[in-house]
Structures are given as C-alpha cells and as structure tokens.
Amino acid sequence: MAADGDTLRALLRAANALLQQRRYHAALAVIKGFRNGAVYGAKIRAPHALVMTFLFKSGSLREKLKSIAQATYAHSRNLAYFVFTYKGLMAVQSRLQGKKIPFHSFFAACIGGWLVFGENNPINSQIIMYLLSRILFGLARLAVEKGYIPQPKQDPFPLLAALMWGTALWLFEYHRETLQPSLQSSMTYLYEDSDVWHDLSDFLIYNKRTDNK
C-alpha cells in the first residue's frame, strides 16, 4: 500500500511539473478549454432543461429525465468541442504568424461555429439566439464608443423594451410558427392558458385540470 501511495505521489508531482512547462502551455490550454466547455455547458443546460421539461413537456418521469440528460449532454459536448476547436486554431494561427491579431479570433470562431453549431437543431438554435441578442447589444455599444453612432441623450432602453415586447406578442398572436418552440410554449402558458379555467382548482392551484370533469 505504501508503494502504491509513493507511486501516486510521484505521478502527481510529474503531472504538476508538466503543467508548469511554458512550452506546453498552448496545448494544455486547449485541453482545459475542452474541460471548461463541457462543465459550463452542463451547468447552463441542466437547470434550464429541468425547468422547461417539467413545465411544458408531457410523458413519463423516465422520458422527461432522458430528455433532460440528452439536452444537457448535447449542450456540454458542443460547447466543449467549440472551445477545443477555437483555442486550437488560435494557437496554430499565433504560432504560424508569430503573434496574435484580431482576425485570428474571428476566423477561429467562424470555423468552430460552422463545424460544431452548424446543424439546425433546438439546442444549437437556442445558443445562436442567445449569442445574437448579446452581439447586437455589444455592436451597438461599440458603435457608440467608436463614434459611428452619436451618444443618445436619453437612455434608449425603455424604447427598446417596448419594441421588443410589442414585436414578440404580435408575432405570437399572428405569426406564431415563426417563433422558437420554447418561446411559443412559454407564451402559450402565460397568455392563452390564463384564459381558461373551470373552478378554483385550475384557477389558482393548477394551470390545467387533468380529470374529465
């Protein structure tokens, strides 16, 4: 047992020594990026899938748990692959050109996005829509910062909120098929299911009755 413990400690020391080697830093950063992508993807998707599945999906408990696990795995895997691809391409470009330039980031992310998130499925669609909203905000702020757009005299956020909600509910009421399925489910729960009840049970306690009354 003591020999096994000595061997383990020696392996740990060797691993820690390897991690401190600067010449391996780029390759090790790619590996840790894969790890962080997998962990972060699971942390983000698991609670979201749990809530959305139990709120809006029917089926047995086993089917719901399977759906949660599949969604969590897909998000975790895709984010891990993307970070691995992005950091790997960044390291290769930097090594080839001898320095890091802004185009490297754009090019590496484009390739990673095409390879990893190019398939049009519910998980990828949600991630791309999440990114789109953040990118639009970021580009607007950058345009103001660079002077391409004048600094607003008043906070434009109230107007933006009004336009976003107005457009969202107009689409829901008259062009529902254009909205992402989870948003359709959320809006149906909020704005349509609240129009229907039979007694106090499905007015305050439940959203819908499950009996045949």
From TrEMBL:
- What cellular component GO annotations does this protein have? peroxisomal membrane
> Where would you find the membrane-spanning parts of this chain?
none
- Pfam families from the UniProt entry: Tim17
Protein name (record): PXMP4 protein
**Originating organism:** Atrichornis clamosus
